[in-house]
Amino acid sequence: MSTISFAGDAVARVAYLSSDVILSVQPALNVDSDFSRQLHLLATRKTPGIISREPDIQVVRHNADPLLSAFQPLRSGKLVSVTTSSSILLQSIPHLYKLAQHPIVVHVSLGPFRQPDYSEITSIRQSGFIFLQSETLQEAQDIALSAHALAIQSGKGVIHFFDPANSLDDDPIKIENRELAKGLLNTEAARREHTRIIGDYSLYVDDDGQSIVTESNLPLVENQKSRTLDGEVSFNVQPPKVSRGEESSVGSSARESSADSRPTVSSATSLDSTNPRPMTSEDLFDSISHIWSQLSTATGRTYEAFEYSGPSNAEYALFVFGSTRLFVDEISVANASDEFAECGVITARLYRPWLGSKILDSVPPTVKRIAVLEHIRRKTTKWGPVLLDILTGLKTGPSGSDSPKIVGYQLGYIEAATARQALRGIFQNLKSVSPIQNLEVGNHERPQNLQNQTNLVQPKVENAYMKMLDQVFGPRLYVANRLEAAHAGVSPSIATTPEYGFGSILARIDHRKRFIEEVQEAAKSQDFTTSVSQKWLSKWALSVDDPSKVNEFAEEVISRLATDGSRLSSQLLSSKALFFQESQWLIGSDAWAYDLGNSGVHHVIASGANVNMLIIDSQPWSQRAAADGARRKKDIGLYAMNFGNAYVASVAVYSSYTQVLEAMIEADQFKGPSVVVAYLPYNKEDDSPLTVLQETKRAVDIGYWPLYRWNPYNEDEGKQNFSLDSERIKQELEEFLRRDNHLTQLMNRHPTFSANLSESYGTEVRALQKRKAKDAYSKMLESLYGAPVTILFASDNGNAESLAKRFGNRGRVRGLKTMVMSMDDFPVEDLAVEENVVLITSTAGQGEIPQNGRAFWDAIKDNTELDLSQIHFSVFALGDSHYWPRKEDRIYYNKPGKDLDAKVAFLGGKRLTDIGLGDDQDPDSYYTGYNEWEPTLWQALGVANIEGLPEEPPPITNEDIKTQSNFLRGTIAEGLADTTTGAIAAADQQLTKFHGTYMQDDRDLRDERKAQGLEPAYIFMIRCRLNGGVATPAQWLQMDSISSSFGNGTMKMTTRQTFQFHGVVKTKLKPAMRGINKALMTTIAACGDVNRNVMCSPLPTKSAFHRDVHEVSARISDHLLPSTTAYHEIWLKDEDDKQIKVAGNAVVDHEPLYGSTYLPRKFKIAIAVPPHNDTDVYAHDIGLIAIKNKNERLEGFNVLVGGGMGVTHNNKKTYPRTGSMMGYVAADKVHIACEKIMLVQRDHGDRKNRKHARLKYTIDDMGLDVFKGKVEDLLDFTFENQHPFHFKSNIDTFGWQKDELGLNHFTFFIENGRVEDSATYPMKTGLREIAKVHKGDFRLTPNQHLCLSGVHDDDLDTIKGMMKQYRLDNVQFSGLRLSSSACVAFPTCGLAMAESERYLPELITKLEGCLEEHGLSHDSIVMRMTGCPNGCARPWLAEIAFVGKAYKAYNMYLGGGYHGQRLNKLYRSSIGEEEILDILKPMIKRYALERNEAEHFGDWTIRSGIIHQTTEGKAFHENVAEEESDEG
Ligand code: SF4
């Protein structure tokens, strides 16, 4: 940008260049101010500042006490500026007085737009700040710069104010001259400001500080000693040096000195050259005049304290304190006959210090009368403040009685159309014999369109807490400062303050107290018609202290009184709302209710009133370190606990919904003040819930935001006062607890508190961590011998990592001191002192380095200073030469490795060997290249010919683990007993899968915990075995309870129709497993290399048929269950139950079907009942298509074999496959057929390569006929020809359906199968309540929804009522959403590369507008998403699919068959949301226009040529729309 058009932009640029920290005050975090867009633009472009290379822009909301945030950076010697509208000034007065003593610049854009209120400036004129005003665009830039120069030179605060509308029509100006700015800013003084250490500060800065001046600091002024206030002043070219001293005790406060018209210290005229003295107004005047003279020399533009424009012989002049534009425009076109022709205009450039006596210096002596026009809306004195200033100034000036006559005016609202008329009025009065003083000109009332400039809005994200309050207390809830409540005659900005709310609550409490007395009296009275009323009133009066009872009785009392008909009853009924006990709340929120800070909390707690406070803290903890440490909400919980009479809870809705509920209920029940401090971190008001969730989780996990509840009276009931609801706690809180005697015991029982506390945060810790790890390694290595070799890897899928580790081991046996770590874990600054470095990297994305090498590469790629001349190095790269078929893309092949090789050599590194290139296309994959490279490296390191090397143990494979596991025991039991870690051993992690549980870690917390030096947050996923997805209500209740007691409070219904629990920590694993077994369910073989849960269509409309099919699924499931007793032994028996234990060396287990090595890979069976292919029957190892007889009962099955979804990105040897038809088998024999198919796979599946071990590859390798023959060899029958069948779709049918027996079934839409409660949707609670009364069963659908089955007509109303109550009856969603499905992915799945379950709903929302626009809202389009190519949500069969590639990047696939019969194909690789929407929106439009009757989206994409059809699994990678790019 070379020109600027807006004053706000010009000022923002200057502020950015001239400050270390800029506080950008904005109406909301996502609403820009006049300055913020420009500030953020500069920051985004990383434009270097003059004072600071990277100025820090801190966004603060205008109602969040913004100027408080200035103290912290000022305290650390930073130069601070503030960009703000004038609306914050009045509320900031307490801060302004203190800030005035610091070199801060506040740029104020006056509002409201086009009708600014200058009283916001005059009201703070005594604050001690220097005030400068600008009017035009050019002035805005120059005065902004002057303001910063002056602040630096004087050490005092400067407010620069301007009306942004005044310069709207100005021509664009050039951007500031950087050299000029540098000269004016006197960076030397600025640097002094940086290093100046300010003494101890309390919350507020010391306001005794004064600016002082010494002779040597002053500008060299000619004739200085004889200079008087009104004398001519000229300046030396040297800038004045004015510094601030802490010690000065001389003189009056700076406030006085700056506001007065004469210097408060008269010694200005007789300087003692050695003694410092307080700075005077004159000194400031000298400084600013000097700055302006420099500016003038450089630019030719002159500025003065008062400026006059107009004829040199004018008799009349206007002194305008307000926007001049309208008047100047009008005067410039005046006719000679106009009253205001030939008049001059005076403005104050320097408004404070007020040097009134200088006005006349700038005005021609011919001026006889001056009209003083003030744009002051809020008039608090009879005479305008500027008028008084001028009068005082003239009185003290030299002109005495010759002074012009001054006539004051109040300016109302004036528009261009009325400016001429206003001027005429002004001059008619001014020229009259006896002008009227204080005449009001213009409209008194603000025009309608300018009202309500700053609407307070409650951010949507904060609804979470508000809705919970509504939900918990319903009609009882009274939020005293609720935003939308009507408060007659009170503006929202006042009505929403907690102070106002507190007053209103006190009034209500009082009112009710009187009412209770009234009722108590009435209960004794005989004035009722019947005694029933009396009886109920007594009951009510006796229970006034119990909210639940009193509200229960209230209804009854009211109805009795209503029928009583007496005068007394009518009188009581006139206040009937008071029969109910309200739950009264005050809200504190940065965004809309003014912050309920310590003082507010103090007020409420000190009053002892029964008031509940909900204080929402929205500051993300990651911003915390940079932010003001003195923010008031810092320790509000602790502060309140110290009072000893308040209930206190610290909660976070995105961490624990139940804990928030508990806290709200407890706060309500507590008789006294309650403070619930609620965390809701967001950067912008429209942050997505996912961002808020992730930020919350980190803050809670790290102990920054502990979850706890504190009830000071609990101990009276023998309970603990304090309950910690999260794992960790912060130091201040721990200290408080330690101090508290009553809690000593608690502390003793939780010794882990202290261990976790003294951790600090941030990047230094991360760096320290790296160093520690490296040092520890180095130490260990010192004791060894041989040359040191540091092996650094960057790896996405583990190949480069395992190669690096292997190389490390092999080096060690050769006597080398090897150290292996990921590149990002290595401190780059240490690279130069290494001796030998080996870099091993794979290739990610479009030839990029994998994630765990990015920071390393970033640190060296543009580095020219790193000297690596001392190191020897070699690089080995892994990639695939065929992934980039286009010639021009070949450069991506092994690019990261090649880049590293070139860069290290460029920095001086000496090559040990040439780079080694591993290529997946080679016969032995990347090992071919590796096997050539490795020996050359041993040669170079001098360890090639070592004799007697121990034989290298072969790598342990899954097959080894299985064989050696003693029928799946391994050391699981020992691992569970080990409390030193939350993990279990690596081999056991493979084995526990067979028991139905996976070890995972919370990936939202991974990085932060690593930085803290903690092990990952290990958690386990448990998967149940639930044959056909059918559960009884009792089982549902048990699952619900397990998820709450042992998991993360939610249940996932999976695509294999079973329950999954997430977030189970190791210590809760066993109780959870027992709980599941107690519900007569199991988890055995839910995962692992065995036959897993057998799926079956829920089939709500055909109950008898469903029973038949479900029985078969149960039979198959039981028949193929493993026989090991390890499961019972590990999970279900007590430690001392020795009888059943089969451990030790007497193994008696036997697996008749599986043998000790089980299957080569997982094995899946599903049954579909045409026309519903909801189980996606083509996607499983065995797919059974149920065939019915004439009586609509089961007859047999068509058998499909070799379906499978799992793929590895970029590995074309892996592909999804749809099952192949084997033929038909009768129902009674199908379990045998399944067994034999499984046995052939057991014996012929690939046990060497797990990526090639599924049945689909066995069949493709063997050929279907051969495979079928082998199966039939084991059977005593053969497959018949398939029976005809027809599928219509693979999605669920939602809503109510009736079956042939007259029973009712309802299919709920449970988005992506996640059963949980949220503030807006208490789904889990609702389903639990329904389970308590339901007499049928629950059927989990294969699309992750839920069918409530078998509801009798008699129970229908009850169930429908409950569904309505919990909003479970809503199935009115778009066809796309109803047909969508996503796997779990982040944060629990270890394989996830991208979000899935947490993201797909958001993506669909972004597409729904487009669908509606093109009339497709109700059309079903099957869209699926998974976080990785493992394909749990069967993405390859969807019409549109997204498969995670990297965080926020997906591969997009199109062309799947609508009823799951056809695979899709790659359309785009590694695209983000923007591209997805850019692709899909026009495609949806085209589909709407071009589709044939009943043509589905997947079919259309093929017909229209957008994508080729995938005919079979092996052809999946052929004819793709775009080659996949990724790691090799
Ligand atoms: S598809 Fe991948 S990311 Fe999603 S749950 Fe399955 S393994 Fe995890």
TrEMBL record:
GO terms for MF: 4 iron, 4 sulfur cluster binding; FMN binding; heme binding; metal ion binding; sulfite reductase (ferredoxin) activity; sulfite reductase (NADPH) activity
Compartments, record wording: Cytoplasm
Region (Disordered), start-end ranges: 231-279
Database matches in PROSITE patterns: FLAVODOXIN_LIKE, NIR_SIR
BP term (GO), one: sulfate assimilation
Main subcellular localisation: cytoplasm
Cellular component GO terms, alphabetical: cytoplasm; sulfite reductase complex (NADPH)
Entry-linked InterPro entries: Flavdoxin-like, Flavodoxin/NO_synth, Flavoprotein-like_sf, NiRdtase/SiRdtase_haem-b_fer, Nit/Sulf_reduc_fer-like_dom_sf, NO2/SO3_Rdtase_4Fe4S_dom, NO2/SO3_Rdtase_4Fe4S_prot, NO2/SO3_Rdtase_4Fe4S_sf
UniProt-listed SUPFAM superfamilies: Flavoproteins, Nitrite and sulphite reductase 4Fe-4S domain-like, Nitrite/Sulfite reductase N-terminal domain-like, Thiamin diphosphate-binding fold (THDP-binding), TK C-terminal domain-like
Flavodoxin-like domain segment(s): 789-938
Name of the top EC class for this enzyme: oxidoreductase
Alphabetical UniProt keywords: 4Fe-4S, Cytoplasm, Heme, Iron, Iron-sulfur, Metal-binding, NADP, Oxidoreductase
Pathway recorded for this protein: Sulfur metabolism; hydrogen sulfide biosynthesis; hydrogen sulfide from sulfite (NADPH route): step 1/1
Source organism superkingdom: Eukaryota
UniProt biased composition (Polar residues): 260-278
Pfam families registered for this protein in UniProt: Flavodoxin_1, NIR_SIR, NIR_SIR_ferr, POR_N
EC number of the protein: 1.8.1.2
Subunit structure, interactors included: Alpha(2)-beta(2). The alpha component is a flavoprotein, the beta component is a hemoprotein.
Family: Belongs to the nitrite and sulfite reductase 4Fe-4S domain family.
Protein name per UniProt: Sulfite reductase [NADPH] subunit beta
Naturally occurring in which organism (per UniProt): Heterodermia speciosa
